[in-house]
Predict the structure.
Amino acid sequence: VSLALGRSWRAASHGSSATLGLSVRRTMRLTLASPMKTKTIYAVVMAALVLAAVIGWLWPSPRPAQFGGKTLSEWLVMLDPHVDHAADHEKASEAIRQIGKTALPGLGHILHSRPNRVREWIRGYAVRWHLIKPAKLSFEESEFRAARAAYHLAEDADVSIAQLVPDLSFHLTNSNYAETEMARALAGAGPEGIACLTNLLAHGERRVRDQAGHALALDSRVRGEPGAQEALIQSAASDPDALIRANALLYLSSFREGAATTRLVALGLQSLKSGDGYTRWTATLVLRNCRSIPEVEAALLSLTSDPDERVRTVVAKAIKSAPTEADRK
């Protein structure tokens, strides 16, 4: 290419700059279209792959976390949530719990990976040339299993996974493949994870806001975290999307551990006036736990003939389960 460009320069040295530019472009086009181009590229890629394989083989690496004769990566392959693999999933879940906090470096390495087309292209050629074995899990599936393992550690082994929060947040906001797992792992990551979810609930994309709201109401431990209920109340009151507002009410209906706030009751009563049946239904789910408040009692009784069957069903069950005057005495 250099020699060809040199000839072009000499040929056009007595012409105009436009003539020189045209000559250079023509020379480059002809040179790069030569039959040697493809062979050269293959040779360079092959040499790079061989060099990378040798370096990877010689370079010392830390011993991966193990349990029961299998590495963490092998257990992640077995952590398949499909119903047909329930037995393997249970074994893998128990193994990851036993590995405990020593699994965090491996999970962090997986979650810290980012999609890379060039890397996948090179890996594909390396597999084709039998330099490496095919990956047992795709990139997306690896992230999915790693997030699943992370929340197993947080929920079942009481391991702090706060160090994984930045990568979990990245995958939640940049991929819709494992968003439920990522959000659930963030919910189990303690105050750091809760702070991330409440921020995403307020400022994330539509699907991310909904996943964050759902994760903030997963279980009593998460619901007890400071700021979780208030963030959902704010979402139910002011989110620009009507469905997200209704879903936030649905998630708030699981907050039974504490006394309902005045703002939540007011929000529920306001939502009962909605023309959307789903919104009224989620409002009745919230208010059925607040029947000791006279306004709520009167509002629920007025819904016994609501046009939405879901609303009528909730109200009927609430009335049926309400204590009688004799019970109060």
